[in-house]
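Chapter review: from sequence to fold.
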Amino acid sequence: MALSLRARHAVVALAVGAGVVAVPTAFAAPSGETSVSASATFEQPFGSATSVAAAAGKRAYLVLFDPAAPATTVSAIKSAVATKGGTVYAAYDAIGTLVAHSTSATFAADLRGVTGVQKVGATRTSDVPAAADNPTIPSAPAQTIPTASETSRYDMTIIGADKAWAVNQGSPDVVVGVLDTGVDDLHYDLKDNFVASKSASCAYGKLDTRPGAWREVHTHGTHVAGTIAAGKNGKGMVGVAPGVKIASVRVAEPTTSLFFPENTICSFIFAGDQGFDVTNNSYYVDPWMFNCPSNLDQAAILEGVKRAVAYAEGKGVLNVAAAGNANYNLAAKSTDTTSPNDSTATTRTVTNDCLDLPAELPGVVATSSTTSSNAKSSFSNFGLNKIQLAAPGSGVYSTVPGGGYISNDGTSMASPHVAGVAALLASVHPNDTPAQLRAKLYAQADDLACPSDSRCTGTTANNAFFGEGRVDAFEAVNTGTPGNTVTVTNPGNQTSTVGTAASLQIQASDSDPNQTLTYSATGLPAGLTINSSTGLISGTPTTAATSSVTVTVKDTTNVSKSVTFSWTVGTTTPSGLQNGVPVTGLSGAKGAALRFTMTVPAGVTNLKFVTTGGTGDPDLYAKLGTAPTTTSHDCKSEGSATAETCAITTAGAGTYHVLISGYSAFSGVSLTGSYQTDTTATLTNGVGQGPLSGAQGSSAYFKLEVPAGATNLKFTTTSGTGDADLYVRSASKPTTSAYTCKSESATTAETCTISSITPGTYYVLVYGYSAFSGTTLTGSYTP
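The token string follows.
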């Protein structure tokens, strides 16, 4: 299994965007460009604070005022910026926002008292780079021409893009703005769709339209651009909408690749003024992962970026953003340990009023990431009513500068799939508003059911992991008869057994009751088929495996709807495991599911399941009481070879179910389940155990069986010398930090009285706070 890909998350600290209004004084275009053949590369991870040359003590600020303020008021505010020790670096009057620079430590506080000023806030916790006054143009990377032919890729197949291309590849009149680290406009798969006249840089917060200013300062933006609109030219790869155009607005600054608020504001304004149809924003606005209205600086950032996004939408732009890669519940915020990321991060408390920009702003389509099996990617942020759509973001193959291609993980990779589908929609519906395009995206999305994960709240139609569902490119171009709607109920994830008949009725309807529905399915387990007329899936499964099943229902006008769910088929009778006895010679194909059970008595320790030997890549899952799946388990081990270990920290009594799942084919593998039985000394009611002795830090365990109806339960240590502490816990062994009762005096005389008695086993720990000897332990109760 490619575990390294799961953990890599696209080396991106990028996760969502921002920006909007009036064009400031821009950098002048030079009379000519210098030819540079070296590729501009950047090896720092996104979001890191890298040392750059800076104007000593100069900080950047947003100064907000009423966009409807009279010109005299605006002029007075700009004059006040100078009076208070600053300069106006860029002005976005249409949204009532200035970008100011100042070396005065009291600049923000002084300016907040000026008439007409609504908010003032620092945009950074680091100095403005010296390059802000004279930015360089990124080098044009040397190019190689791809020789490999276009290949089938799971991300394009799973969203139906491959089928969409046969109907409509997108209109050249539609432009998608890639607001990112720049784009390699010379890449073989991008050059024919790139629009230089609508591309620019907004690094440092001021528009720079010089030729090449839009170019890449990392690899991220080029990867995003390829997913959206790489050309269908027979080489390399194909984007979701290969017929539309892309423009680059470089938001990130060189060296740090950070996306500061003033940069994003400039970018959204430019996007609106250029008439982009869609923007993709695979980042969050630095330096704060969340901007909180209770903080004066962040309140200004929140409002400035919000105005910019609204400006772009008002100009007809649909904005799509990545939801983030922290596996964080955006609907239940509590702490942030990563901000600010341009200086020294500290741990701070955050609330749901604190927003991830631009993903959580009104109108922005926040996108989570899914895997090839339609599960939530392990890194993806989530949250009920915070995620609007889902798209593939794990192992996404796309373009990088210089003519190359790589696979990356991240919601940064998921978001451009949605932007590409939005571009297809805009091609088919050129007069739709952003709100109308959003509505179509949501209505056409394929519902994904929640897995067995308590974090995924909501319904199949709209939940915390997948929002309205996985985006559907084919539906975007499959117009059918206007007005018809096909509705399909997602049945949820299914389980069956090899050799046992199975059936599932798919429920679907059409807004036109006179339509005839036709059913089809892909990914069904071997031995099952779907009746094309009735939607009944039936048959007898023949192979143990977990499949991702997509059912599509179409009416006679060619309107269709799809739902996706998993179907796990297990072996007929799980093989029994014996403590410490290996089961050898195990083998299976990719997707194979071998199942085992092991009966575990009460009180055991060091329970673990281990695979060893052989070749290939099996993954290991275990669960008490019920059969595990790859997404529902008590323990999992997903390494990249055959050596897997599932260790159960606190073992319960009962039957443990074990699943070996073939991430790829495997053979010659051995599975061993093992545990250690409890050798804890047993106490007899009212009878002292001792004399006990121990060194400092020593632990001695005992247990007492307490029947139903018992009262007056207590444990005592008496006599002896030194300092022994006493800890008691019901059902499992206590520690010095986990217990039902504790007694920690400075001697050996300790008493633990249990007021609320639960029948069963009580475990006792006598711990040597210092060395002790001659102590007696007694456990007693009244029957």
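Two observations follow directly from the output. The radius of gyration is 31 Å. The CA atoms of residues 279 and 319 lie 5 Å apart.
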